[in-house]
Specification:
There is one protein chain. The chain has 122 residues and is of the alpha+beta class. The chain has one domain: 2-Layer Sandwich (Alpha-D-Glucose-1,6-Bisphosphate, Chain A, domain 4). 43% of the residues lie in helices and 32% in strands. It contains three helices and five strands. A five-stranded antiparallel beta sheet has the order 1-5-4-3-2, covered by helices on one side.
């Protein structure tokens, strides 16, 4: 295999992991966990039309899915309190095309910024 073939294989591998990754993403929000949790539930159900298959406010996690002809989404969100409840770390595992996860997170960030009149970095 020549150098071009190797580069081609590496590029395909890289871009497929971006588009179809199942990576866990971590994001920090400057809000209390219960605020982020309830906003995420509302966002997933009302704004995105997702089905919540399991949730626990004490365990601070949400398992959700969305199946329709346009999109198929399966994900798990876990929230962790940081800095004496002043910040919330969100871990999201997402099965499916990565651009859907990016779109979901961007819209959720915008919703939090609008609802709480704050600016979230990133």
């Amino acid at each position: 295999m020549d150098c071009r073939g190797l580069i081609f294989i590496l590029l395909i591998s890289f871009f497929s992991s971006i588009l179809f990754g199942r990576d866990e993403e971590k994001i920090i929000y400057p809000l209390k966990t219960k605020i982020v949790y309830s906003a995420m539930i509302r966002y997933l159900v009302i704004d995105e039309g997702c089905k919540i298959s399991e949730k626990d406010i004490e365990g601070a996690y949400i398992i959700f899915s969305k199946d329709d002809k346009e999109e198929s989404i399966n994900g798990k969100i876990e929230l962790i309190e940081r800095d004496d409840e002043k910040k919330t770390e969100m871990k999201i595992k997402f099965e499916g095309a990565n651009y859907k996860k990016i779109k979901l997170l961007k819209k959720f960030k915008e919703k939090l910024e609008e609802e709480h009149n704050i600016k979230i970095g990133g």
